[in-house]
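From the pipeline queue, job 12 of 40. The input is one protein chain; the requested action is below.

Action: predict structure.
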Amino acid sequence: MAKTFKMPHTLVLLVALMGVAMVLTWILPSGAFEMETTETGARVVVPGTFQVADDAPFITPWDLITAIPRAMGAASDVIFFVFLIGGVLGVLRATGAIDAGIGSMLESYRHRLGLLIFMAMFIFGVCSASFGMSAEYIAFVGILIALCAALRLDSMTAIGILVLGYGVGYGISPMNPFTVLIAQDIAEVPPLSGWWYRLVVAVPFFAIAFHHVYSYARRVQKDPAASYVAGVESAKAPPPEDYPPLTKRRIAVLVALGLTVIGLFLGVRFLGWYLTELAGLFLVLCGVAIVISGMKLNEAAEKFIAGAAALTTTALLVGFARGIALILEDGLVLHTIVNALATPLSQVPAELSAVGMFLIQTLLNLFVPSGSGQAFVTMPLMAPIGDLVGVSRQVAVLAYQFGDGFSNMIVPTNAVLMGILGIAGIPYDRWLRFIVPLMIKLTLAASLALVIAVWIGYT
């Protein structure tokens, strides 16, 4: 009997991709563009300056192995954020406040599934579109899974709500400071210009994503066997039979959690906070929760360590994911890939060129999962190409934004995505079953939006 194919473990998949990256450094000619520093201090490539390098380093298997600890160091901010958030959530769960809050919420939303999914996706989408939030959502994975489990939904629904909310938010944002504003600055178009078209297309894109999650959730609620994670032990999250009572102490802990979330938004938006400051904010929440709940310090320490230990797999996946781009950078083939993909765009009509830009940006996100990093590498090339083929620079920015934002929901090099899937215990192959149909829909919708943008002279 022929054996059925089994998708490798996510860690195995990431190591394999690192190996592919190493082989590419052997096959592809090494090269680089000249770099220049903008007025804002950003390092960007200079179009038309690509040259093959004669003295590129040879990447050996030993270099691949040593790239792993280097990648861990490069992704240390996200890794330690994951550990600290895991510890804080361990303490919060031990207070019983989260379970009590979920039980109370169920009484309000038990028969309004559509409204629950819509509001949750809308909040995640707005926060990503406005503040560029993504890694911060790791803190909410456990809460969403518990809530969905209590509604007879699976962990795939919970992660769909989270990932599709922030992915679409990135893809249609009119003001994301880490993608839109950086790309517009590099393309030399006014900051926040073209916001109206992004808001217009946001409606159908969000509707497509919401329908995808809602229709899946309805199927699972009617027939649990239809779940894409049926039989996956790591993804099981059975709801407790009885929720703890919502006491005054637990209400106070939930209020502290709410104030922390508000502080998170304000800190990111107005104070330039990122993972270090946000981790510190959650540690303050942890201390406040311990005091409010009256938990003994030794018990709190044990719960914190247990919560952090539970996310060890997630932390490792984050580090390994960073290693892929690191190897390509070391072998000086990253710019080679960008140059080879970008040049043919100058040979096709404007509409196809715009769609081609989007598809190339989508592919490049596999190698450069950082939104701002991808903008620095590709926009200095895409903007001048657009000038030659009749694609406005605003359309070039939109193509970049679609490619970066939507593909964040599927590329295995996205450390945030792999971290979220790791926490939820969802194998990557099961996630592909859920997300691929949506990616096809979004790709078609994005291509149409870009063609229309060219037709109307979007600038």
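Job complete. The chain has a mean pLDDT of 82.
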